[in-house]
Amino acid sequence: MNRRHKRPSKKIIILLAGVVIFIGIIIGMAYPTIDQFRSLRITIHNQSDFDLTNVNASLVQGEGPVNGERDGSVYKLKKDIPSGKKVKFAPRLRPSGESSVHLQFTDSQGEIHTKIVCGYTEYLSGNSYVTVTNDNITVKQECW
Questions:
Q1: Which residue ranges does UniProt annotate as crossing the membrane (predicted)?
Q2: For residue 2, is it within any domain?
């Protein structure tokens, strides 16, 4: 007995391609919604002429910092950020209630800069985008 396998018709192939594309679009549209529930990520884009050193993120509750590295309220980035580079990291911090996240770094001229990168958080989720130029530092907060 000679059996021949039927090739799928063009209609079936087009229909399957359409379904795959449709599912891809749905997943792509849902990503921003899902992304906000991941751990807080800070992206620093150093557009200045200076390297950034001693970069750390810290939790602040009420009037001042919580305690220090030992209790999980300070996270030190292990590497410097050279001029023209972009770095994304998820600080390992442990909030206990309502907090804010502050970013501190030193430029290569020795000047220390501190910015609030998440003004209010209970869960340390979302994103913060920091752009450093020679003239200013801008922060876009998308955190919860």
A1: 12-31
A2: no
62 and 130 fall within a common domain: yes
Whether residues 104 and 119 fall in one domain: yes
- Domain holding 91, by residue range, is 41-143
pLDDT at 32: 60
Split into its structural domains, the chain has a count of 2
Residue 66 has pLDDT above 90, yes or no: no
Q: What is the CATH number of the domain that holds 121?
A: 2.60.40
Based on the fold, state whether residues 84 and 70 are members of the same structural domain.
yes
Average pLDDT over residues 110-125: 92
Do the Cβ atoms of 72 and 94 come closer than 8 Å?
yes
Task: Tell me the DSSP string of 48-116.
Answer: SSS-EEEEEEEEEETTEE-S-GGGT-EEE-SS-B-TT-EEEE-------SSEEEEEEEEETTS-EEEEE
| Contact assessment for residue 122 and residue 144, using Cβ atoms and an 8 Å cutoff | yes
- What are the structure tokens assigned to 53, written together? 């050193």
- pTM of the predicted structure, to 2 decimals: 0.73
At 30, is the pLDDT very low, low, confident or very high (cuts 50, 70, 90)? Answer: low
SS3 44: strand
